[in-house]
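Recap quiz, item 2
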Amino acid sequence: MNSLELVAATVKLQKTERVPVIPQVFGHAAVLSGVSVEDYTCNGEMLAQCQLNALKHYGHDAVFSVMDANVEAEAAGCVLEFHKERYSEITKYALSPGGQLSPLVVPHPEKAGRMPEMLKALSILRKELGMNTMIFGCVLGPFSVATQLIGLEAALYMAVDDPARLEALIDFAADIIIRFGLAQLKAGAHAMLVFDPASSPAVIPPNFFREFIFPRLKKTCNSFDQAGSMANWLHIAGPAAPILPFYPAAGVHIANFDYYISAAQAIKGLPATCVDGNIKPLAFVEGRPDAIRKESMDLMAAFLGRRGFILSSGCEVPLESRPENIMAMVGAAREFSNA
Amino acid sequence: MDKLITAILDGDSAMAVSKARQLNASGLSPEKIIIEGVEAAMSALDTKCTLEDFNLLEIMLAGRAVMEVTKLFWPSGAVKDSAKGTVVIAALEGDVHDLGKNILKMVLTGKGYNVVDCGKNCPLQKLADAAAAERPLAVGLSGLITTVIPVVRQVKGALAARGLDNVKVFAGGAALKQSTPGMLNVDFVAESAFDVLRFLSGLGKGIR
């Protein structure tokens, strides 16, 4: 059973020879290869090479095409500033709080911003990895894209001051990510990561998620399913326990749970869905390998009788993570018996 | 006063300003309206917002109402001659995310603190200079990304270099709250803005 088969079987809650381990190595792959974050997030060839280097170094079970959280926003008209040692930031939003949505157009994935570079990265990764290791494309969630287009504060105030306009904005955002996601699947992604930090219950109440986010998330995941995605991985960080029960009906196959949520809560909230988590991200910077190893072992033990568990970090491993800590997590997964 | 409190908790800025204006016209001082109305609303919000039931949207809406009421009496948005003291806050250089800091500002203002906001992507020297000028009760650091941690660790040293050894330093935000006071070289790590209120209430009025 190769890595891709291992992850695919785990998603189906089947018995596997070991627990898959997927540290969420995004920009850390650049640091590991001695490349600037700016180059990594702007050059598809470099991104692919760094992901391959990280895969070879750590021996984990999946690679990602994640650049940063601003790819869709940039393609739709936001202005960014790039940095050598950290991710880009938005310096000008595509929309002003009182502005009209009508001038905005859904960007073409093969032409707009850095989207073509991400497609190039996926194409290279697929050529190199074939059907041996799972390749995750990445889109931001519909609400997160909406907040990137106008700013989080403005989007949240709009939820109360002009909810119809916010709904229109989220619909527009969903159109962007569906088109972009389908292009990624066509370019080589086996599966899709939907990264949606703004939908966390730390930001919005669960009933807001149910009314505003869930229908667009379902539409997005259904589109990816129809295009052949092997799995839709939803990543919502923070105290997400109240919204976990919505995930299966939305078409989520892998549910990230952050360090706020215990293994028991994740099992209870998602009894028949594959979950991944949940080592505290900062532990990969401040912690020690022995502590990471122990926490990994404890997590795998918590899921022993249940199946459908991917050992992972609660969120992205920070750029400056210590490689020995990631090695400790990967080593623990290979050492742990899943019998 | 109850109607003012309800309006703030509902996030209804226009109603909150209207009620505050009425209370002032009936003879209540701005200070009394802040203490008995706005601060009471923030206390109620604190009780409501447990870790399991805490979201930015509700806090922001209430905070917006608080800031509008504050601006009604003090157009600068800061409570003048705050009896509780001054808090200097910032998102340090390298971190351009300021929503957490802005919420902290609203919550602290709502509880009667004078807040000096050094903004986002704030150089360490600018923060330390502001603290030297304000002589605050505490300095607050908000951080969403882990790469800002090395700068956070330098804050107490920069304050000490200006003779501000007694100024307490606290940190919060998605990245910083994963750490510990010892690792960050600060006095307190807050889970939420309300956690900060409890920390500050234990400090007294400050050094001035």
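The CA atoms of residues 39 and 110 of chain B lie 6 Å apart.
Residues 30-48 of chain B form the longest helix (19 residues).
End of item.
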